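User: Teach me something about this protein's shape.
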Amino acid sequence: QSVYGGLTGRVSDGVGLMLGYIQKLNDPSSNLTIGYSYDITMNKLRDISKGSHEFVLRYIKLIPPPPVQKSKHPR
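Assistant: First, the predicted structure itself:
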């Protein structure tokens, strides 16, 4: 289990703040991520756009590689 946060910026455009949570599930090859981000508009559009919200829900399940079948030649 872990929590993450971050800050991102775009030159003369905006700033984004993000926060999320990662939950390791019972299976060690899978996890669940829940996140939220808010972008603050910093350019001329700020009078029209007060910002935007983004929600993230991600489930990861790693697929094991297929087994390698080896065969022996009788000679």
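Now, about its shape. The beta strands are 2-10, 14-24, 30-41, 52-61. The mean pLDDT is 87. If you'd like, I can walk through any region in more detail.
User: That's plenty for now, thanks!
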